[in-house]
Amino acid sequence: MTPESRVKTKVKKILDEIDAYYFMPATAGYGRSGVPDIVGCYDGVFFSIECKAGNNKPTALQEREMRLITDAGGLTMVVNETNINEIETTIKKFARRKGTVIA
Predict the structure, then answer these.
(1) Distances in Å between the alpha carbon of 102 and those of 1, 9, 33?
(2) How many domains does the structure of the chain reveal?
(3) Using CA atoms, how far apart are residues 91 and 49, in angstroms rounded to an integer?
(4) Pairing of strands 21-23, 45-51
(5) Which of 26, 33, 31 is nearest to 8 (CA)?
(6) Do the domain assignments include residue 103?
(7) Burial class (CB in 10 A: 0-12, 13-18, 19+), 76
(8) CB 51 within 8 A of CB 38
């Protein structure tokens, strides 16, 4: 299992624990490039999570997609091993503020 796969596995476990709806879009040449690794909904709020390992950063296409999601009122997060434990708190905090972007 790659380091990024380990991050994705931990993220899915957290999302399962809070009963969030989510899926992992597979673009494979048919979808839209740059879509975050995980997209979902919690308490009526759309969220997306880009999983990275170590110091890896989102690509320009990924940043564009995350900006579009944020502009539409959704929540976007870039998660790695160091901030993975903030997912639940961030999603729940954002859900209480519906429509407010948390920077």
Answers:
(1) 32, 24, 25
(2) 1
(3) 10
(4) unpaired
(5) 26
(6) no
(7) buried
(8) yes
Domain assignment present for residue 12? The answer is yes
Structural domain boundaries, residue 7 = 3-96
Flag whether 81 is in a domain.
yes
Take residue 55 and report the two structure tokens written for it.
């110091």
Tokens of 21: 């709806």
CATH number at residue 68: 3.40.1350.10
**Are 96 and 67 contacting, i.e. CB atoms less than 8 angstroms apart?**
no
C-alpha–C-alpha distance, residues 83 and 44, integer Å: 24
pLDDT at 46: 94
- pLDDT, one tens digit per residue, over 30-78 is 778 899 999 999 988 899 999 999 999 999 999 999 999 999 999 999 9
Average pLDDT score over the chain:
90
What pTM was estimated for this model as a whole?
Answer: 0.88
